[in-house]
């Protein structure tokens, strides 16, 4: 060991290395603390502190009056070799095997003109100061201790949500049926874990929200894809299908944007009732309905025992907050509550309390009205610019609601799509294919280029400039 | 319908009910909007808005000039009957079946004198203003859009943690090996889902942290309990045990408080290496080490390919924040990242950024030093008061570290425990049994009353008063 400015941490580290690499072998005695202190030119206390740490960790033993002695150690082969390579392959669970090939959402690209990526919101739309104030109030809440909260979700938030869901979505439920989740993704995952087994099948829309598909498939259950048309999932295909669960986006089908009419809703519920199946209703963006009021959920049709409802603040406040909520049939509450506790104990309490404050004060609904207007304007600009530029060369779907539209470029054949997406991106515009949202065996797969165009993160200028670039790319 | 102050929402609701209960049957025509408006004494627009909503939801159809007509509906039996009772039992997944009987942690009790519940922190120990400021900075961060963040965790936080883990725990890892989780509970759950199958076994300490036991058992894998003594898990029992995973709390065994010496650490790692098993190291409270420096993690012993490290802010900031972090062997990063994305997309970004700010500014370590001093004082008061009151009638374990101690009441036989706990509670003091942390088949099960006593949420006055009450209860 070098003389000089070494401290007890340094002495400790070096002795540890010397014990591990057998410079000192088991049974060897270390120098006395006085001798080592002299040798290193440090105080005896400095050495003593290092020895105490080594003793506490079991590297050495010491009796009063005797010199410290190195303890016997069983040295694993890997440690002796200093290697961190694995000798045998890791054996994973079926869950791990099924997700390892799962595609992540497309990576964020540099799009200096406009990125029509779906799901992002504009930074200027977030209520920074009110949310900061609400978080501050949550931090200042009176509590007896800092401890875990209710796994099912903060009671104040569940009570506020119960009233909100009745006001805004005609959902009649008790606060006891509400489960607060860390984003609706966790809700999907809990449904998959609790309700599906590898022997089961689940019904999914085609095209669909791919993360939902992946989440249910991770259970080992097999998908049954049912095509979507202008009225949502074609429920006439349901009778005869044996499945444990059906995942639907009835208020605003993702991605095509259709609203499921009440006749099909009835057919879906009837199928679920006959088959003892659950309907998972993902109400991811029904706050954005531009022509009429938000469409009520399947709960509005009163059969509560088959429907699991999922809502989120990802499209109203920000995706990065990770707050979602579920309404759960009464006889499933106990098991969902326990699964949630195992999954992450409960969701962030401060964000739950801030959201409760937003709901109670009416700020949440005011905020939604404000950004609904802004998104309605963005949508108008996008649709008008597309129509002005492309006129009847395109077909637009799903523009009555939500934060995205689907655009079919009727005279661009499907096979040109990779080239088109790449050219657009080279010109600074991010656009995304509808095609990858279709499950592979679909008969309905589109024959021309189709785009999912999100607009909620863009300014009107960016929207116009982006469409102009797309027009130039198509024309060339 | 009644005349009067009805709006379009009321008209819509009432017509919907009349269609659902067949007052209007499919094919029936509704009154013209003019006629209904006259009848109700409202404007024609009010009626038109209601009709448009019913049309959008598929209840009625309308052609220009003709009266709206009720659409055919398939009415599920359950809806017709207005029933929400399930006719068949729900068939759950194995996961759901295995958790449905799982015990929740003991409910919070009213303890006016003192609640020695483990895991809670004092409200006065939370850095309210600094955390508020850090959250405010996170809210004000420059971003291009509001969108999802990296599933593995915010890069700024992972970078700050990488440096912190090296400084404070001698863990050498890259930021790429760090995964941010929603509390260490989520880390346990991910390990269970990814690494365990129903055919596997897992090694667990006896007594143990019961939530970890439950989480691993939820995979269907079977526990192998290994007894704990004053040096931690008795690793001499490991050779010959076939298991996929071992869960340990080596820095401060929960609940008994022992530190695992380096010889046993080596044996554990050697066993893992030979058996191709993983060691999940739960470092839940090593920040609170009162005699020496925090004990380095198993990572300090260099064999990184078998160790999964878990840390948390639950014991340093607050349990309700839900931030934890894992260090993961390089060849497992991809699958953990995907599992985390499926579980909840990513953890709350604002709390991640606030924690990064705390780490970068040095506030986190200053805060830990401050509350370590406070908890050291609380511990001193608790231990001294217990010793003064009970002298040699008790034995205290695990008081060198952490936020709890274990107290054995040597002359109170085990069978008196339920009566003792109840009497204490009636006298206003919450105390909790060690016994329920032992797995049922233990040979080492204690023969006298044993308590886990947490002190980090209490004032010194409460601690003294609580011990005084316990003494009276024991004496009577």
CATH architecture of the largest domain in chain A: 3-Layer(aba) Sandwich
Unreliable residue runs of chain A? 77-83
Total domains of chain A? 3
* Average pLDDT figure of chain A: 90
CATH homologous superfamily caption of the largest domain in chain A: Type I PLP-dependent aspartate aminotransferase-like (Major domain)
Report how far the terminal alpha carbons of chain A are from each other.
72 Å
Structural class of chain A: alpha/beta
How much of the sequence lies in strands of chain A comes to: 15-25%
**Largest pleated sheet of chain A:** 8 strands, mixed
CATH topology group of the largest domain in chain A = Aspartate Aminotransferase, domain 2
Name of the level-1 CATH class of the largest domain in chain A: Alpha Beta
Radius of gyration of chain A: 30 Å
The helix tally of chain A amounts to 15
Biggest chain pair contact, residues each? A-B, 131 and 131 residues
Helix share bin of chain A: 25-40%
What strand order characterises the main sheet of chain A?
Answer: 6-13-12-11-10-7-8-9
Shape of chain A: elongated
Count of β-strands of chain A: 18
What does this structure look like?
2 copies of one chain form a homodimer. Chain A has helices at residues 8-20, 33-40, 44-56, 77-81, 94-99, 128-139, 155-169, 184-195, 210-217, 262-275, 333-344, 349-360, 363-390, 417-426, 460-475; strands spanning 60-61, 69-70, 114-115, 121-122, 145-146, 178-181, 201-206, 222-229, 232-233, 245-248, 278-282, 307-312, 324-327, 394-397, 404-413, 429-430, 432-433, 448-454. Chain A has 476 residues and is an alpha/beta fold. Chain A has 3 domains: 8-70, Winged helix-like DNA-binding domain superfamily/Winged helix DNA-binding domain (Arc Repressor Mutant, subunit A, Orthogonal Bundle), CATH 1.10.10.10; 114-121 and 367-475, Aspartate Aminotransferase, domain 1 (Alpha-Beta Complex); 132-365, Type I PLP-dependent aspartate aminotransferase-like (Major domain) (Aspartate Aminotransferase, domain 2, 3-Layer(aba) Sandwich). In chain A, the strands form 4 sheets. Chain A has an 8-stranded mixed beta sheet, with helices on both faces. Chain A has a 4-stranded antiparallel beta sheet with strand order 14-15-18-17, covered by helices on one side. A two-stranded antiparallel sheet of chain A has the order 1-2. In chain A, a hairpin with a 7-residue loop joins strand 1 and strand 2. In chain A, helix 2 crosses helix 3 (44-56). Chain A starts with 7 loop residues before the first helix and ends with a helix.
């Amino acid at each position: 060991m070098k003389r000089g400015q070494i401290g007890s941490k340094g002495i400790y580290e070096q002795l540890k290395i010397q014990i591990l690499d057998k410079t000192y072998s088991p049974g060897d005695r270390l120098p006395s603390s006085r001798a080592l202190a002299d040798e290193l030119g440090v105080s005896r206390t400095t050495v003593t502190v290092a020895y105490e740490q080594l003793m506490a960790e079991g590297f050495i033993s010491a009796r009063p009056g005797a010199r410290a002695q190195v303890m016997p150690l069983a040295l694993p082969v890997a440690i002796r070799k200093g290697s961190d390579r694995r000798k045998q392959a890791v054996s994973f669970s079926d869950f791990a095997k099924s997700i390892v090939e799962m595609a992540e959402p497309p990576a964020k690209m540099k799009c200096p003109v406009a990125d029509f990526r779906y799901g992002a919101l504009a930074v200027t739309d977030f209520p920074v100061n009110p949310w900061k104030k609400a978080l501050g109030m949550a931090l200042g809440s009176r509590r007896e201790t800092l401890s875990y909260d209710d796994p099912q979700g903060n009671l104040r938030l569940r009570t506020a949500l119960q009233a909100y869901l009745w006001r805004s979505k005609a959902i009649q439920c008790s606060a006891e049926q509400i489960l607060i989740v860390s984003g609706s993704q966790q809700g999907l995952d809990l449904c998959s874990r609790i309700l599906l087994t590898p022997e089961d099948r689940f019904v999914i829309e085609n095209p669909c929200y791919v993360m939902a598909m992946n989440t249910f498939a991770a259970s080992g259950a097999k998908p049954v894809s049912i095509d979507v048309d202008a009225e949502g999932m074609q429920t006439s295909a349901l009778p005869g299908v044996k499945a444990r669960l059906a995942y639907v986006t009835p208020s605003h089908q993702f991605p095509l944007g259709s609203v499921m009419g009440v006749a099909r809703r009835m057919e879906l519920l009837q199928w679920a009732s006959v088959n003892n199946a659950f309907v998972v209703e993902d109400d991811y963006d029904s706050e954005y309905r531009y022509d009429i009021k938000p469409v009520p959920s399947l709960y509005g049709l009163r059969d509560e025992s088959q429907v699991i409802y999922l809502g989120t603040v990802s499209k109203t406040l920000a995706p990065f907050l990770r707050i979602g909520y579920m309404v759960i049939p009464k006889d499933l509450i106990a098991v969902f509550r326990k699964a949630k506790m195992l999954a992450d104990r409960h969701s962030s309490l401060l964000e739950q309390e801030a959201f409760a404050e937003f709901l109670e004060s009416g700020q949440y609904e005011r905020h939604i009205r404000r950004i609904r207007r802004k998104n309605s304007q963005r949508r108008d600009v996008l649709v008008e610019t597309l129509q002005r530029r492309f006129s009847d060369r395109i077909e637009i779907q799903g523009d009555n609601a939500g934060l995205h539209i689907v655009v079919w470029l009727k005279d661009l054949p499907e096979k040109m799509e990779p080239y088109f997406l790449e050219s657009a991106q080279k010109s600074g515009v991010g656009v995304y294919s509808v095609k990858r949202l279709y499950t592979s065996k679909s008969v309905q797969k589109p024959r021309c280029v189709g785009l999912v165009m999100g607009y909620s993160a863009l300014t009107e200028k960016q929207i116009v400039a982006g469409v102009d670039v797309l027009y130039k790319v198509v024309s060339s």
